[in-house]
Amino acid sequence: MELRAEQEAQIGRWRGYVQRRQAISPADVDELEDHLREQVADLRATGLDDDEAFLVAIKRMGNLDAVSHEFAREHSERLWKQLVLVPEDAEAAGAPPWRELGVVLALAVGAGVAVRAGIAWLGDEAALARNLGLLVTPFLAAYFAWKRRLTARVVAGLLVPFAVLAVVLNAYPFVPGGSTELLAALHAPVVLWLLAGIAYMGGRWRSDGRRMDFVRFTGELVIYYTLLALGGAVLVGLTFGALQVVGADLEPVLEDWILPFAVPGALVVAAWLVEAKQNVVENIAPVLTRVFTPLTIVMLLALLAVLAAAGGLVDVDRGLLILMDAILVLVLALLLYALSARDPLEPPGLFDGLQLVLVVAALAVDAVMLSAMLTRIAEFGFSPNKIAALGLNLLLLVHLVRAGWLSAGCLRGRRPFAELERWQTRYLPVYGVWAAMVVVVFPLVFAFG
């Protein structure tokens, strides 16, 4: 079993190395990986162990730089095609040039129709909040399923948890305005996003490399979605300003039609843009992480000072604790995104030291928050909100402690950065399991209150 895990790690490192060659597209990387896996399987069948089979397979595939050069020579137009909206693999497969665009637009409109129908049929805002992820995520997962050509078995495996989650969110007799209802609405999107991630990974959720691809995709999706939202807000604002001059009031149209279609539809379109221009976006990741890492360190140190000045831990405002949880999750996302943008073969440098400082600062904040939460529980007793927040902070504590330990080992040259990457990606499903527990188990334990 250990050999299998190590072999997956070797293939993951190789995949990351291949992906840094801009002349090789993501579809080509998948094809090369499949070929490598076939070679390794054939060599293992002859009696070679995992390490020997992997090394011989790599040797047979030839020098990767030579492969990149050959791709660049034969497909030099690819670097130009990265700047247009029609992906090359659709043309190579003989599909109509705008077929994928048509699929994306249809799914984006479908997501808008689902949200608009949910607003009309579900009635109250609480029911809509619980089901909003269920109304949008299937369309995003459907795009991944179409793009990755998922097998019927994988699709069926994804439909089951989707269906279970839909039944739980709508069949449970939640107390109106209760804590468990709010917690279910907040944690259900986490479970749904990880299910969409399985579709993105083509069903290969056990692959470290594919999980890191999904981390990178998530970060890039946030960037594109934010840009689309900002651009859309400017466009809508200018349109409304012009129409107000002539006395037209389009606010009802904005609330009833534009936002229900634009917000979910933009998510599908942003996912398509990330896929279409993947190599171009990847160049943004190192810049963003190097800009925001030192800024985030300063922010965490300032927050530690605020908490120290707040006095007794019982007196710390609950809203501040919730905000601190959100900040810690953001810090974790920044750490993952920075790691996804890092060259694992690059020697340790100043930025890696800053990453370790960021982890230590986040650990200090998390320790203070855990102390505050335990003090509040001892003073006021248990509640669904307190247990959910305590569980999340304990998960973050374990994640950050191990990440800090591995980062220190990498900086000292005693551990490869691939080991840190494996820990980060393999720990992510734990958050999904916890979120599922909050959605499914907490309402039963706390009598749906």
TrEMBL record:
<feature type="transmembrane region" description="Helical">
    <location>
        <begin position="320"/>
        <end position="341"/>
    </location>
</feature>
<feature type="transmembrane region" description="Helical">
    <location>
        <begin position="222"/>
        <end position="245"/>
    </location>
</feature>
<feature type="transmembrane region" description="Helical">
    <location>
        <begin position="128"/>
        <end position="146"/>
    </location>
</feature>
<feature type="transmembrane region" description="Helical">
    <location>
        <begin position="101"/>
        <end position="122"/>
    </location>
</feature>
<feature type="transmembrane region" description="Helical">
    <location>
        <begin position="184"/>
        <end position="201"/>
    </location>
</feature>
<keyword id="KW-0812">Transmembrane</keyword>
<feature type="transmembrane region" description="Helical">
    <location>
        <begin position="427"/>
        <end position="448"/>
    </location>
</feature>
<protein>
    <recommendedName>
        <fullName>DUF4153 domain-containing protein</fullName>
    </recommendedName>
</protein>
<dbReference type="InterPro" id="IPR047928">
    <property type="entry name" value="Perm_prefix_1"/>
</dbReference>
<feature type="transmembrane region" description="Helical">
    <location>
        <begin position="257"/>
        <end position="274"/>
    </location>
</feature>
<feature type="transmembrane region" description="Helical">
    <location>
        <begin position="153"/>
        <end position="172"/>
    </location>
</feature>
<keyword id="KW-0472">Membrane</keyword>
<feature type="transmembrane region" description="Helical">
    <location>
        <begin position="387"/>
        <end position="406"/>
    </location>
</feature>
<feature type="transmembrane region" description="Helical">
    <location>
        <begin position="295"/>
        <end position="314"/>
    </location>
</feature>
<keyword id="KW-1133">Transmembrane helix</keyword>
<feature type="transmembrane region" description="Helical">
    <location>
        <begin position="353"/>
        <end position="375"/>
    </location>
</feature>
